[in-house]
């Protein structure tokens, strides 16, 4: 849980649930009922478009039949971000990994039961055409924007709140964080093998922090949600990543990308700092990471 500091506390709190997780927004000002209504509507609109756990969502319709689907305006930004990272990771971070996740049991019914065989993930150019906020498919596909979606929603929510709160807010979507304001908040980096411990602390100021770890959304003996689309299997070699970037959608998708490629490749396109823990417990990090590690 972030430490918001004592000098100028962000004492007003707005708590709600979204995308299956608990959210908290903190600010020095109370939350106007109209702002809350706008946030609730934006969250509902996002969920109705992008949730593959709802039978009535746009992505669920897309999974049943091909065609052209008109998504909310954020589709242009999130799919453009995905496309760039898709290319940087040679196709390993893709919004088309949904079918592979369902094959492993992470499906709308939460069966958590692996099916026989391997589910192939189609290539972007064979399956999708994106034009602005319109997405056209050539066959039924299971779209999953989980590597960037929650981060994107954090940014959208912050845009609704920030103008009325003096540019001082903290949006905490169960660990995906956006901070705005002059006083940094200290954020513990949870140890992926022991949630009662931290491996370090980040000093977050006017930036976003996201993490990805294989101990979250894990089931069975060795299954988790970070899946290599080339093999259909959960990726091995990395336990957890933390990324600080200028916005939450970017921090979110880069935290996943670090499971598949080296930071130097991603840094060719995006400025960010990171910490990464391997399966053997070793840690690598960027020299400019804002905080300290307890090694």
From TrEMBL:
<dbReference type="InterPro" id="IPR024932">
    <property type="entry name" value="ApbE"/>
</dbReference>
<dbReference type="InterPro" id="IPR003374">
    <property type="entry name" value="ApbE-like_sf"/>
</dbReference>
<dbReference type="Pfam" id="PF02424">
    <property type="entry name" value="ApbE"/>
</dbReference>
<keyword id="KW-0479">Metal-binding</keyword>
<keyword id="KW-0285">Flavoprotein</keyword>
<dbReference type="GO" id="GO:0016740">
    <property type="term" value="F:transferase activity"/>
</dbReference>
<keyword id="KW-0460">Magnesium</keyword>
<keyword id="KW-0274">FAD</keyword>
<protein>
    <recommendedName>
        <fullName>FAD:protein FMN transferase</fullName>
        <ecNumber>2.7.1.180</ecNumber>
    </recommendedName>
</protein>
<dbReference type="GO" id="GO:0046872">
    <property type="term" value="F:metal ion binding"/>
</dbReference>
<keyword id="KW-0808">Transferase</keyword>
